[in-house]
Amino acid sequence: MMVLTIPLMSYGQDYAFVYINDGTGSTSSVPTATWTTVGDGSQKDFVTGSVNNWTLSANVLTAGAGAGGTYMVRYSLSYAGVATNNWLAGISINNADPTTIQSQRTVVSSTKDTGTISGSGLITVSVGQTVRLKVKPSSIGTFKPIEAQITLVEVTEASTSYYGGMQISSDQIQTPGTSFTKLTGFAALSDLSGWTVSSNELVAGASAAGTYLVTYSSTFTGIGAVGSPATYTHGLVKNGSLALTDPTTMKSIVKANATDRQHTSACGIVSIISGDKISVEVKTANSGKQMTTRYAQVQLYKITGTTAPSVASMYINTDQTLAIGAMTTWYTVGTFTSGTLNEWGFASNTLTPTTGSDAAGMYRLDYSLSFSSLVLDDRYSIAVFVGGAQKLGSTSQRKIRSANYLGTVTGSVLVPVTSTSSTIQLKIRKDMGSTGNMTIKKANLALYSLIPGSHDGSLPVELSDWKATSSLGVVKLFWTTDSEIENQGFIIERNQETGDKSQNTWLEIASFSKNPELLGQGSTTSQNDYYFIDKQVKVGKTYHYRLSDVDYRGSITRHAEIDVTVKDAGADLKPSDVKLHTAFPNPFNPDVNLSFTLENSVENLSLEIYDLQGILINTLSSGY
Fold this sequence. Notes:
By secondary structure, this protein is mainly β. It contains no helices and 48 strands.
């Protein structure tokens, strides 16, 4: 693994990244209900990672002569305490008490609980003003920061931008050792520009060089009893396969047992050149400690642009009771207060693009939520909803280990905004436990445009899925659009992997102008599925594919690059991907329709139904 060394480069957009690494300072006593700066006293100080028009001194960031404006701020803090205590953390401007950007978490003891607390939001600062991270306990307590990061990025919009993301969205079991090893199970998010995903790494393309804000978050279960959980450290790594040392600047640490569903996150700023690879790595304090990752997201965004963007934010900073009337049902989080708005409106806990504005574009969205529950072992999912639909890659999860225990989750996601119907909401769902009340403690959601939409205020196509599989010596490409605007159709390009990257060139293999199945749907808000079979491939070779859509004006929008290795008939005795669709109707009595999709042929298939105790109820299908 490689230390993420950041050269000090001059860019028009202001930013700052500072961090605490492997905190070794003595624990500090923090007075009851008093906001105290992280890094003060005997705590370990923040050090500079990368800054432009900002300076760091005595754990305080100060806006320089060229700074000032609106910034997206994000923080992550891994820390330990000695006695049970509820800790608030928040961003302070000019040493004032934090108000709109706060999060809250319970720490039980130093032996049972090392946790991560994080948050994000929009702030406005002027030249000479200061920014710092503060904490406040519910009662006097000792405090020791172990890993921490603060990032500030001026919100601006550019005519073009580069961004990438990958996610884990189903259980991935792994047993990391005491040295860092790559977290596995990642798949590409559909919204990528200049980046690809391969072997659980984000890979920078030829034109993607620059300075990036990078974030990750992970929801996972550990091992061990409640009183003796295992300790897990996650870190962001650049070019891990070639590196010689552990990640240093962007880490988080948390303890998790076998019944926990913990959440951890970190953030930072990193310099990227073509071919660089970004991954998440994890280690444990002791060997043989299994973990199950349920959700994880890595997002990065190039820091560029000079134009004032469209922005929107909303927050909660007072306790609110939310009634959960039904399990596995999504509820809007609390009653928000509107924050910064430009070309957006706010009403009924919903952010809505303003009619007639230039709000369309690709957005970066960050959220954080702190909450408690009255019932032991309640488990909740949290997600962003765009236009009433759950946004792929935005979901996090948290389990409340005891009554009134406070937990925090965060998330970051790219959001295409196409019209006034692209409303933004933050929702929560109870997955385990029982119905009843929960308490929303703190919440914040903020977004700003990275690039504008087309001149008519729209993005041409929003993908929710784009993947490649191989069997029987051919490649099958599948993609799904959630919406299309003035879409003529699609173009597919192929690039064969060779040892000499300079010889890799893209070849158009199919186009809507010649292949009727690639014709678009014009303008639609309905979901549409597409597929294409590439037979001009060789078994054992690896191919890269690139999908583009073309609007009625001839403008081309490229989507993510994906790769696949061609397999012959004997290599696919099991399906590479099985999708069991939602039961219909639900609830049902007495009949129900069940459907499923296999993405390659199989020799034998069975479909069985089990009850919650694992007892076989019925075999619906068995045989060829």
